Amino acid sequence: LVSLAFVACKKEPRCKRCGMKLDPKSAWRTDLVGDDGTVTSFDTPRCALTSWREGQTKAKSIRVQEYYDHVTKDGTEVRFMLGGDVVGPMGPDFVPVDAARAAKFIQDHGAEKALTLEEVDAAFLKAN
After folding, report:
1. R_g over Cα of the chain
2. What is the mean pLDDT of the chain?
3. How far is Cα 53 from Cα 71, in angstroms, rounded to an integer?
4. How far is CA 57 from the centre of its chain?
5. What is the pLDDT of residues 58-115, one digit of tens each?
6. Residue partners of 104: CB distance under 8 A and separation at least 6
7. What separation in angstroms does the CA of 102 have from each of 51, 59, 60, 116?
8. CA distance 60 to 51
9. Beta-carbon-side half-sphere exposure of residue 6 (alpha carbons within 13 Å)
10. Which of 20, 53, 60, 80 gives the lowest tally of CB atoms within 10 Å of its CB?
11. Residue 10's pLDDT is what?
C-alpha cells in the first residue's frame, strides 16, 4: 500500500517552457546544454529555442533529434524546417533536418523555410 502511494506521487518530468509532460521516447524532445554541462529538456524545438533566445534558459548549445534518421545532433548540424505537413505535438514547429537533407524535406513535406540555428533568433521567433 505504501509503494502505491509512492508511485502515485511520482513527479513526471515536464517541459521547462510550457509544462507539457516529457516523453523520453518522443522524436520532438529537445535539450539545451548549459556551460556547466547541465541539461534542460523541452517537449519541442520551438519551446527550447524560444526559452533560449528569450533568455529564460542559459545555454551554450541545443541538441535535437534529426527527422529522418532519429539521431541526436547539435543544432548547428541541422536546418530548422518551417511549414509543410509535419507538425509537432503542439502544432506547427521547427523540424530538425540534417543540412544535406533539407531540399529532400522541402520536396517531401512542402516546408517553406530551411533555417540555420543562427537565423532562429528572438525576433524571428516572435514574428513566427
Report:
1. 16
2. 92
3. 24
4. 14
5. 999 999 999 999 999 999 999 999 999 999 999 999 999 999 999 999 999 999 999 9
6. 68
7. 25, 25, 24, 11
8. 13
9. 3
10. 60
11. 67
Q: What is the pLDDT of residue 8?
A: 54
pTM of the model: 0.88
Residue the block writes with cell 551554450: 60
- Write out the DSSP string of the chain: -HHHHHHHTPPPPB-TTT-PBP-TT-TT-EEEE-TTS-EEEESSHHHHHHHHHTTSS--SEEEEE-TTT--EEEGGGEEEEESSS--BTTBS-PEEEEGGGHHHHHHHH--SEEE-TTTS-HHHHHH-
Instruction: Residue 94: name the closest of 73, 74, 79 by CA.
Output: 79
